[in-house]
Amino acid sequence: MTFVLASNNEKKLIELREILSDLGLEVISQRQAGLRLEVEETGTTFEENAFLKAKGACDALGLPAIADDSGLEVAALGGAPGVFSARYGAENGVELSSAERNALLLRNTAKAEDRRARFVSAIACVFPDGTVLRARGEVYGELLRAPRGDGGFGYDPIFWLPELGKSMAELDPEEKNAISHRGRALREFRQKLIALREDGRGGKVE
Ligand code: IMP
Prior knowledge:
There is one protein chain. A seven-stranded mixed sheet has the order 2-1-3-4-5-6-7. The longest helix has 19 residues, at 181-199. Helix 1 links the parallel strand 1 and strand 2. Helix 4 (173-179) packs across helix 5. It has one domain (2-198): Maf protein, CATH 3.90.950. By secondary structure, it is an alpha/beta fold. The mean pLDDT is 92. It has helices at residues 10-20, 46-61, 98-108, 173-179, 181-199, 201-204, and strands at 2-5, 26-29, 65-74, 116-126, 132-143, 159-161, 166-167. The protein binds inosinic acid.
């Protein structure tokens, strides 16, 4: 069975393919499927946004569609930037670079003693018969006071993992995948897909 990834992010496509390859499932991007779709992320939760993106692609193509939505929640900011993580600090539609976004977040939390933060990833998979699979992964850490490391992307350089004694940007890709919110959500999704296949719902995932 072919799945569509409701995203144009090549990195996500590679990750998904890796985690689903031994199940004999093919994953193609929505671009490969000939779909140009920018679903408005109007949801107030990661789950809602993941569902909106997956449902949009599934409805348009008649194929099972997978989407993820992720971001960083900072305790001292009441959970911000959250679903606005990619657009944090944007003005008049002009987005900041990752380095600028990180600098802004550090300025906005400069006085905060509470450094707790977490990354969240929500995955939704919508099947043409209406079946919906959901998965969620989280990783807890602390906001640093200055960036460290040059791996990863986005907020990784300012996210500290106390148990590992490293920032997220100091992990190699395998290490990050083993503990990251997205890695966890993908592994949960994989398990749910296997269970779904066993009980024959989702239009028979073969
Ligand atoms: P999206 O899920 O592609 O919309 O990503 C949302 C935003 O959350 C990204 O642009 C990043 O700023 C942030 N983000 C999500 N996952 C990660 C991660 O693993 N490391 C660093 N930043 C992340």
